């Protein structure tokens, strides 16, 4: 008797509307779980190239034809484009009853899919809490990735199964909480990229040849400490109340990178408030520190606004 494992048959025909960075990666993950990508749509040259690279031999067709061919449709378009896309697909009769319609927007829950639901579609909101590159590495990064999931009660098991098949972990988010959930992720991830990029630029100006090598261990430790300990992980001149050092920072930034001053001041004030609230910043030192930040923002900083 041959005991070798048998190939797992494809169970759902998968379509992708919007071949940005997210859709092709999720389709590849579903393919690895035994599903079958059958159609993808993309408009820009970059989307067409990405679809060809990530989903070779999958036909590139208009959105309506994607829905015609697929049992499970991934709507992976920008947030602002999603409502009009759903309305258009529903109005033109492209949506089929019983079809799983999945969007990956963090901002929206399933209400944005109501036009398609009225046409008989089964609505799911599956948002991977991950940053995507549009390359093969994205599929690997889905392993253990949390997904913000919103679904009708009768589809919760289906939503959970799809996330697990993609290698992810479902985290249930109520419809009304989706905007707050998404704001939290943007605050942590998107702004982090901006801060790191600014930090590397400043280090280059200071003569550091490889700022990425310098920042890698420091930022890795800071992130690990923050995830483990929250505000207790705060260090640096703001948390210590070193008003003179902070004033010197702002002075140097004004000379060499004035575009970074507003962000530095805003983050310094927020950091000071949190350090003070958690007992890390002594009240007698906080007064001088906040005075420096306020004076600079209201006086010397007027030229940057």
Number of helices in the DSSP assignment: 13
> What spatial order of strands do you see in the largest sheet?
2-1-3-4-5-6-7
Q: What is the number of strand segments?
A: 7
Which blocks of ≥5 consecutive residues have pLDDT under 50?
Answer: 1-10, 301-305
The biggest beta sheet reads: 7 strands, mixed
Q: State the helical fraction.
A: 40-55%
What fraction of residues sit in β-strands?
5-15%
N-to-C SSE series?
A: EHEHHEHEHEHEHEHHHHHH
Calculate the mean pLDDT score and round it. Answer: 92
Shape estimate: elongated
Rounded to an integer in angstroms, the radius of gyration calculated over CA atoms is: 24 Å
Span of the ends, CA to CA: 77 Å
Structural class: alpha/beta
What would your notes on this structure say?
This protein has about 300 residues and is an alpha/beta fold. Helices cover about 50% and strands about 10% of the residues. It contains 13 helices and seven strands. The chain has a seven-stranded mixed beta sheet with strand order 2-1-3-4-5-6-7. The longest helix has 28 residues, at about 180-205. It is elongated and about 65 Å long. The N and C termini lie far apart (about 75 Å). The model is unreliable at about 1-10 and about 300-305 (pLDDT under 50).
């Amino acid at each position: 008797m041959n005991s070798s494992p048998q190939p797992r048959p494809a169970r759902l025909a998968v379509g992708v509307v919007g071949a940005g960075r997210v859709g092709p990666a999720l389709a590849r993950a579903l393919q690895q779980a035994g599903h079958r990508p059958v159609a993808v749509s993309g408009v820009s040259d970059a989307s067409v190239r990405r679809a060809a690279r990530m989903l070779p031999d999958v036909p590139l067709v208009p959105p309506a034809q994607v829905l015609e061919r697929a049992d499970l449709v991934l709507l992976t378009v920008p947030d602002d484009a999603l409502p009009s896309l759903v309305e258009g697909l529903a109005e033109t009769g492209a949506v089929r009853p019983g079809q799983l319609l999945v969007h990956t927007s963090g901002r929206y829950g399933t209400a944005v899919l109501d036009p398609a639901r009225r046409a008989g579609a089964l609505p799911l909101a599956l948002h991977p809490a991950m940053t995507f590159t549009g390359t093969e590495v994205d599929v690997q990064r889905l392993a253990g990735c949390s997904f913000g999931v919103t679904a009708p009660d009768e589809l919760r098991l289906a939503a959970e199964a799809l996330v697990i098949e993609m290698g992810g972990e479902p985290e249930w988010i109520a419809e009304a909480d989706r905007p707050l959930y998404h704001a939290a992720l943007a605050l942590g991830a998107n702004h982090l990229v901006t801060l790191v990029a600014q930090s590397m630029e400043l280090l280059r100006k200071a003569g550091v040849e490889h700022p990425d090598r310098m920042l890698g261990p420091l930022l890795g430790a800071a992130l690990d400490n923050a995830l483990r300990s929250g505000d207790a992980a705060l260090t640096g001149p703001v948390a210590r109340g070193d008003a003179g050092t902070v004033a010197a920072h702002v002075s140097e930034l004004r000379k060499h990178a004035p575009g970074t001053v507003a962000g530095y001041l805003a983050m310094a004030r927020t950091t000071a408030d949190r350090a003070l609230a958690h007992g890390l910043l002594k009240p007698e030192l906080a007064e001088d520190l906040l005075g420096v930040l306020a004076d600079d923002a209201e006086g010397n900083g007027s030229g940057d606004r």
